[in-house]
Amino acid sequence: MYKAVLLIVFLAFVANNVQADKKIVCYFGSWAIYRPGLGKIHISDIDPRLCTHLIYTFVGISTDGEVKILDSWADLANNSGKDGYGKFNALRQLSPGLKTLVAIGGWNEGSVKYSEVAANPEIRARFVENVVKFLKEYKFDGFDVDWEYPNQRGGKPIDKDNFVSLLKELRHALDQHGYLLSVAAGSAEKSASLSYHIAEVSQYVHFINLMTYDYNGSWDNFVGINAPLYASSKDTGNSAELNVNASVRYWLSQGASAEKIVLGVPAYGRSFTLVNPVNNGIGALSSGPGNAGPYTQQGGTLGYNEICSYLSQGGWTVVRDQEQRVPYAYKGNQWVGYDDPTSLLEKARYINSMGLGGAMMWSIETDDFRGTCGEKYPLLKALNSVLRDSAIASSPSDSDDTTVVPPEVVESTSIKPTSTKPTSTQPVTPSNFVCIREGYFRDPQDCSTFYFCRFVENDYMIYTLHCPNGLHFDTLYNVCNYKSLVTNC
């Protein structure tokens, strides 16, 4: 019976490419209420219908295990404060089922205090008690741990063990009150292998917000895309691991549950200043961070709302990298690699193809929340159009895509596995095909046929599917694509 139900669910996925139960986790940077001009956001500007989970950032920690409010005027109602917590949690009234969490940590908090608290069982227990009290007092639905990063930035090797102990104790306490527990985690193998016992982290949290971005930035001496979906054919060694796909596959290989991985997507780009404006391709030499934007006001970083505004003003050349599946843009000596609605549509389909738990956005106040470049929240709506069956989550319009996609480029994202049809209503096991892991696989003899492997009850279920006439299954992007664009067929 279980397998029959699973089959029905899977066939619905193939037919519609929509997963109503996928999470869309939205981080909100509360400091954006201080930004100038059109970059300033009010909590009332947030559309809670576009998120399943909203996370308020940040609170801090003290070495004696206290949860510290970092901006009482912005967060609380007393002393004529802005009542950020209250207004944020009130958004649940506009979207039934929405869960609100508060996050502790972040980059600026560092690692030292977290390392100290996690290492001391008594202080750790006190911290867990204080977390529960905090959630009760301010009426959040859960707690997000964003320790950046165990065993790094002043941490110690024992942090890996202590982080698991902290999560185990938090989960036990939060479960007693029905609260959620999530983590924000570094994604690339080089960093994650230092910080996490991945299988155990996955065991104790409800979901993992995988920070699959910041693979390249102004700390390099060359330009690179913030969050490439796949590696470039030019990438070698460690560089070949600095992409979304490599990170996801690493976490899965280390025992993370696919359903708990929530794939991070950035609502911002990493910008650079070119050494030579004529040399402007990926890998070109950079002399440092790009110019600060008018809203975020930080060199080397541009919000999507800033990027789309720049592009609408003209003078920028936009290139969509066909291997890494994300765009970059340049004008003079300024260069930025970023995500747009088109690349997020493809990342959302990647989430479905890998059976992941959903998408996480860092962070929604740098999406075009005012709609200055078109519709409001174009990035969030792109995710919703694939991951949730939402009436308000329409796909970006054709006019949105043509502003950033060269018209001569044929995008494989316009052809989805949604048009594939199973050959029968029962799993079919080809005589010459054996599943070795979950996912999609192309038939070695027939490029229009592919298989979906799903591990259920200690065995693999294999589904046979076919691309529409004239199309081949593209293993690079897990879509049915034009024959001329599919390699090795």
Description:
With 489 residues, this protein is an alpha/beta fold. Helices cover 27% and strands 23% of the residues. The protein has 13 helices and 21 strands. The strands form four sheets. Strands 1-2-4-5-6-7-8-15 form an eight-stranded parallel barrel, surrounded by six helices. Strands 9, 10, 11, 12, 13 and 14 form a six-stranded antiparallel beta sheet that branches. Strands 16-19-18-17 form a four-stranded antiparallel beta sheet, with helices on one face. α5 packs across α6 and α11 packs parallel to α12. The longest helix has 18 residues. The two termini are 38 Å apart.
Write the layout of secondary structure elements.
Layout: H1 2-16, E1 23-29, E2 53-61, E3 67-69, H2 72-75, H3 84-90, E4 99-105, H4 112-119, H5 121-138, E5 142-146, H6 159-175, E6 180-186, H7 189-195, H8 198-204, E7 207-211, H9 244-253, E8 261-266, E9 268-274, E10 286-289, E11 301-303, H10 304-313, E12 317-320, E13 327-331, E14 334-337, H11 341-354, E15 358-362, H12 378-387, H13 398-402, E16 421-422, E17 439-442, E18 449-456, E19 459-466, E20 471-474, E21 479-482
Parallel strand pairs: 1-2, 1-15, 2-4, 4-5, 5-6, 6-7, 7-8, 8-15
Antiparallel strand pairs: 2-3, 9-10, 9-11, 9-14, 12-13, 13-14, 16-19, 17-18, 18-19, 20-21
